[in-house]
Amino acid sequence: MSAFTGTGWLTRLALRRDRVRLAIWTLGSPLIGYALAESVASIYPDEQNRIGYAEVANTSVVARAFNGPVASTDLGAVVVTETYLTLAVLAALLSTFAVVRHTRQNEETGRAELLGAAAVGRYALLTAALVVVVGANVLAGALLALAFVGAGLPAAGSVAAAAAIVGVGLAFTGVAAVTAQLSVTSRGANALAAATVGVAFLLRATGDVLGQRAADAVRLDSAWPTWLSPLGWGTQIRAFGGERWWVLALPVALLVVGVAGAYALAERRDLGAGLLAARRGPATAAAGLLSPAGLTWRLHRGALTGWAVAVAVLGLAMGLAGNEVDDMIADNPAAAEAIAQLGGGADLVDAFLAAMLALFALTLGAYVVQALLRVRGDESDGILEPLLATAVSRYRWLGTQVAGAVLGALALMLLAGATTGLGYGLAVGDPVGWTVELTGAALLWLPALLVVAGVVTALFGALPRLSVALSWAVLIVFLLLGQLGAALDLPQAALNLSPYTHVPSVPAVDVTVLPLVVLTAVAAALLALGLTTFRRRDTPT
Amino acid sequence: MSVISIENLVKTFGGVRALDGLDLTVEPGEVHGFLGPNGSGKSTTIRILLGLLRRDSGQVRILDGDPWRDAVTLHRRLAYVPGDVNLWPNLSGGEAIDLFGALRGGLDRRRRDELLRRFDLDPTKKCRTYSKGNRQKVAIVAAFASDVELYVLDEPTSGLDPLMEAVFQEEVRQLTQAGASVLLSSHVLAEVEALCDRVSIIREGRIVESGTLSELRHLARTTVTVETGRPATGLTELPGVHEVRPVDGRVRLEVEPEHLDALLAHLVRFEVRALTSTPPTLEELFLRHYGEAVNGDRQATTGGTR
Questions:
Q1: Domain span at residue B282?
Q2: Which residues of A touch B102 (CB under 8 A)?
Q3: End of a domain among B176, B198, B216?
Q4: A153 neighbors A76 (Cβ within 8 angstroms)
Q5: DSSP state of B51
Q6: Is B299's pLDDT higher than 50?
Q7: Are residues B131 and B195 in the same domain?
Q8: Where are the domains positioned within chain A?
Q9: Among A476, A457, A477, CA closest to A467
Q10: Number of domains in chain B
Q11: How far is B7 from chain A (nearest CA, A)?
Q12: Segment A159-171, tens digit of pLDDT
């Protein structure tokens, strides 16, 4: 029996386990690529638009940091710049999670032990995971190239653009293969690999911000930190801008090094063990933990911190970009219309800022849903049962969870307003005034977030088993009504179903109080419904 | 005043009648064993007692309160150990213990530390890294360190090794010496035999047998093995004698307790050389009621209460 015995069998097992995930991954990423390519093509139809785009994108610090350099003024280059970050981060995270799922998670749950006792070699589990993940990346990449060609882009550039994404996926496959050996828990392995994605993003952003602009402003030569980042390599291939195919060797090399390292580590450790010891905790609880509120804070603070960092960075970036809105879309009526539709009002900058707050509010709706649905997770995992067998009433417990989710979302929303205001204020020289103004405007979204919390609570109380699926479905309906409703010319009655429709888009329009009062009343009714139905029902798993 | 009194309790899930007229009484200061196969309704009964499930009909009193309406005040006076403990993965075991204690209304720090030592549990490990047995210990320590009147234990020792099982039994005895009552649902018959003053056997949502172990034994047959000088005849015709079969030149049979006397009178006529009489083990009592699926109609024809 060789160390690889059983690899084929385990590969089929992994494919069977992940058939739905893999299908969504390999089809979803090309579909996103196609949709974005089509929409970019409609916004930047001719060369003149694109020269303007390239000038702004390669000049603006914010655009450089987020999207990286624009390789040329070809339509394909604009498509790549607009889609790269989304597709690359998606490929990096999906690869990471898939590798960890089929390696460390199997060990953590004890499945690997069962398999290891069968006729399965030492390397088989890791090899099967790599075969599946590399295969999924290549397949998704091939379909993505076809999608770009299908959107009317030249073949060579399309292949290079897709290969850039595949490269990112392969590079992080190598990274995850190593982190899965290091950490004892799949959570830890995922976190290590995701942190690497974060560092790669920061390196690339730094390198691109520090880059040198060529004289004609349509080309940006990134500085050296970009070359340290697997996310940077993808942009340096310069798809649609005189492709540099040799750059593809870098992610492949990282994959090879990572895999070799992972095999070496697998050889040296016991099954289930890691090189990083599991972290320990305190032997006794701090006084702050010993209440439902203390527990809620403890359980949410990690996610809340992550959201806060992301919101603050995005808020500052969007605020700084606010000053460039006029330049960016001065000669681009399509983009101007899109912003005006979302933000409303006459002044383009005000509309942009209002639209950003609306987007933050929609995104933070997801925070509310995710944070509050923890109640259902605890119930179905059986964590809730011993808790409710203590002297904590159901009202108190659920009320605390709702308060925790809403207060967290409110804090994030105010942070979004403050950082957006600060960014824009810094750009136009009035940081205090704009911070106060947009923080106030952000506060107006609280009633809409309360309605989201009310919907989740009511669903949890009345229909616990369906509450997870229905809560997300309702949020997606709100999102679609807010984003596409006006564009699709849906009747006002349909748009009115979403609480987001009713919040005045300050600073683009004036404050109106009545809709906010009505939203709050609706939220209160939904919360009351959720609390009473939860008090009266069983606690099903 | 009983600690727990349940009369004619009914609970249905959809079309399934999980509890079908269940009666159960737990007296103050006793350890009450609650026996039954998986799916017989033990955990459903316990969840109703804890106010986690609503009853459809029937009378339920626990610590002289209504488990649904008075849940919060009652829960200050009882502690619960579930059979399958799930904990917050990112809290340490010590934090989880303190949290449960605090939410129940405080725990005895000295007891907590003593129990941690006795159960050999490392409180600094994160709950996600605990094995099943260690998660079980977290719940046991949290419950036993609380000074309450009633302990509701739902298969509390699943996953514990024999050493820990012994510690568990000693700790339960300490609780009852201090005057507490215990409802112990269990599959470990040796544990029930060692600890319980009274036992109730549940089957398909009803109690089929309830009483002290010696009372239950009186309801069940004694196994008699006898060696006689001359072949014993006419045994199968005797009233209350069953399962007569020869074993290595001896005869083994089962006899109902009230017919033991008549059996002995009959046997002496065949020169008894050796005789052993074994009272039924709890396992046999238990199997009488739920061994049907295993043993087919043999048990069905002889089951006492059917």
A1: 217-302
A2: 285, 290-291
A3: B216
A4: yes
A5: T
A6: no
A7: yes
A8: 7-268, 290-536
A9: A457
A10: 2
A11: 20
A12: 999 999 999 999 9
